[in-house]
Each structure stands twice: as structure tokens, then as C-alpha cells.
Amino acid sequence: MSDKADQEITLEAGTHFMCTCGKSENYPLCDGAHKGLGKGPEKLVLEEPTTIPVKKPE
Ligand code: FES
């Protein structure tokens, strides 16, 4: 199904910068590939290790 997450990732507690542009080689984490796209990462602060669903934007 197209709305189902492709995979999951477990992130450690702390601050993460999540890719919103879909170009990151390290998706869902931002790797700086958004430069020139007019987009930027979203800051995510976790209190504890957390597993999140990952679905790369088309
Ligand atoms: S690489 Fe996608 S937001 Fe930074």
C-alpha cells in the first residue's frame, strides 16, 4: 500500500535533523543535500530512543 511506511529506523535520544526534501543519501536524516532547494531539515528532539516509520517522499 502506498501510504504504508517502507521501513523503520530507531533514533537515539538527543537532537536529530530530519530531511524534508527527500534528497538525503542518509534519509530520513538530513545530509545537507537540500542546499539550493529552498528547503531545510526539521529539528527533532527525542527524550529516549524512539523507533519511527520512514517513508521517503516521491
Ligand atoms: S538533505 Fe533533505 S532537508 Fe537536508
Q: Using DSSP, what is the number of strands?
A: 4
User: What share of the residues lie within helices?
Assistant: under 10%
Task: Summarize the helix and strand pattern as letters.
Answer: EEEE
Please give the radius of gyration in angstroms. 12 Å
Outline the biggest β-sheet: 2 strands, antiparallel
Question: Bound compounds, please?
Answer: FE2/S2 (inorganic) cluster
Portion in beta strands: 25-35%
Query: What is the distance, rounded to the nearest whole angstrom, between the alpha carbons of the first and last residues?
Result: 14 Å
Number of helices: 0
Overall pLDDT confidence: 90
Based on CA inertia axes, which overall geometry fits? globular
Task: Just give the CATH class.
Answer: Alpha Beta
How many structural domains? 1
User: Which segments are poorly predicted (pLDDT under 50) over 5 or more consecutive residues?
Assistant: none
**CATH architecture label name:** 3-Layer(aba) Sandwich
Q: Which sequence of strands runs across the widest sheet?
A: 1-4
What would you call the structural class? mainly beta
- Output the CATH topology: Ribosomal Protein L9, domain 1
